[in-house]
Amino acid sequence: MALLRQEADPSEAGLDGKALERLDRHLAQYVGEGRLPGFLLAVSRGGRVAHLTTYGLRDIAAGLPVEADTLYRIYSMTKPVTSVAALILMEEGRLGLDDPVAEHLPAFADQRVYTGGSGADLTTRPVEQPVLVRHLMTHTAGLTFAFYRCHPVDALYREAGLDSAVLPGSDLAGTVEAYARLPLQFEPGTQWNYSVATNVLGRIIEVVSGRPLDEFLAERVFRPLGMPDAGFQVNGEQAARLAELYGDADGGGIEPIAGLPLSGRPRFLSGSGGMVATAYDVHRFSEMLRRRGELDGVRLLAPETVDLMTRNHLPGGADLRTFGSRPAHDEPGNDGVGFGLGVSVVVDPSRTQAPGGLGTYGWSGVATTTFWVDPAHDVSVQFLTQLRPRKSLKLYPGLKRLVHEAITN
Q1: Bridge partners of 383?
Q2: How far apart are the C-alpha atoms of 188 and 113, rounded to whole Å?
Q3: Dist CA 30 CA 8 (whole Å)
Q4: How far are the Cα atoms of 44, 69, 276, 348, 364 from residue 2, in angstroms, in the given order?
Q5: Which residues are bridge partners to 256 per DSSP?
Q6: In terms of DSSP bridges, do strands 123-126 and 254-256 run parallel, antiparallel, or are they unpaired?
Q7: 12-56 pLDDT per residue, tens
Q8: Does the predicted model carry a pTM greater than 0.90?
Q9: Residue 178 phi/psi, 5° resolution?
């Protein structure tokens, strides 16, 4: 069984052991206060795991502890994986960043963009430029999520039955066609709006490769990188290791909630948020990125391609707050953070909520999972738990600050 293990003493890796203990205590408070069930934290330096903590429970009712081989629903941390798959096809000359999406998905031809009004009085016009593949990867396509509830186009998504970004009873192809029938929130390339775009990218991967998304990812990403538990479903042995998913209880504390159905192959293969993985799987993926496309002699992407992926692509070096579609993204946590091809990228460390090096990249999932790579300090971090809170725990700024304080050289 593939297990993430500590490989180096913190002091050998240029990390302060006492600072890391302080970090563990800080995170353990969330468990002690009943705000998290448990967690796994891994801090690596130069690719070697120098700090690994498992704490609390993966299943409170059953009294099962968090262990190194625990499986997690990583939700939106699926997006960087799907983006890497698209980049593989680009290196093979089968897909291009500036390909119109309609070239691969004809339903996206003749798209329209919102101009005003709402409900029956909503008005649109033809787009001035088509949605491109790069717009999907940078979330500048004009697509959205139904749950934002801050724009008339969001309401159209709800009316179309896309409350959870999935057309009920449909597969990826049918759901993406439902997206295509709706107007864009803004002209492609003019704003940033975190959205269903990576599901569209996943469907393009299927069309271009001629393979279902889960099969393509298994063949071209998971097996080459040695990610044995990563995928879109769990077998019987894996089910015993899957962490229970929790949400906020009405009376305080947390309680189990329904998560992704994983017992069989899902009809809807979500490139945006359908994956499960262990800490070992996430470490292997982030290590490939840290090593600029190569791991253990297997090269998935060229170094220049990873550099392109992890560079800010927002126009003029903008960050998510200034370029974001307000009010959905007008949050302090978006200051100083831009966006690459499927990952966030720190463009101004002095303006971010937490310290970190210029060029730090990564992404998070809705169940309070996150990973990041800090090239300036050669540090990689992952934090895994299973909680979908109604409001953000504001956990990440403290986590990042305390990791940064542990770096001694």
Answers
A1: 41, 370
A2: 9
A3: 27
A4: 17, 8, 15, 37, 23
A5: 246
A6: unpaired
A7: 999 999 999 999 999 999 999 999 999 999 999 999 999 999 999
A8: yes
A9: -65, -40
Structure tokens at 378: 């050669």
Of all helices (H) and strands (E), which one includes residue 263? none
Q: In this structure, what are the phi and psi dihedrals at residue 50, rounded to the nearest 5 degrees?
A: -110, -5
**Cα–Cα distance measured from residue 69 to residue 274, given in angstroms and rounded to the nearest whole number:** 19
Is residue 107 a contact partner of residue 77, using CB atoms and an 8 Å limit?
Answer: no
- Percent of the chain exceeding pLDDT 70 equals 100
Sheet of strand 246-248: strand arrangement: 254-256, 246-248, 387-388
> Which is it for the CA torsion 306, 307, 311, 313, positive or negative?
negative
Torsion angle of C-alpha atoms 15, 18, 22, 24, degrees rounded to 10: 70
Strand, coil or helix: 64? strand
232-240 long-range contacts, CB within 8 A, separation 24+: 232/262, 232/265, 232/266, 232/269, 232/270, 232/274, 232/275, 232/276, 233/262, 233/263, 233/264, 233/265, 233/266, 233/276, 234/71, 234/262, 234/263, 234/276, 238/71, 238/276, 239/263
Pairing of strands 38-45, 48-59: antiparallel
Residues 180, 100: Cα–Cα separation, whole Å: 13
> What is the rounded distance in angstroms from the CA atom of residue 122 to the CA atom of residue 285?
43
Name every residue whose Cβ is closer than 8 Å to that of residue 21 and which is 6 or more positions away in sequence.
none
Strand segments (E) across 302-409: 337-339, 344-346, 361-365, 369-374, 379-384, 387-388
Contact 43, 15 (CB under 8 A): yes
Q: How far is the C-alpha of 84 from the C-alpha of 301, rounded, in Å?
A: 8
Rounded CA gap, 395 and 368, in Å? 9
For residues 56 and 65, the answer to whether their CB atoms sit within 8 Å is yes
Phi (first) and psi of residue 198, to 5 degrees: -75, -20
> Cα separation of 226 and 83, whole Å?
18
Q: Which residues of 142-151 are buried (b: 16+ CB within 10 A; e: fewer)?
A: bbbbbebeeb
* pLDDT greater than 80 at residue 1: no
Token reading at 81: 């994986």
283-339: per-residue pLDDT in tens?
999 999 999 999 999 999 999 999 999 999 999 999 999 998 877 677 778 899 999
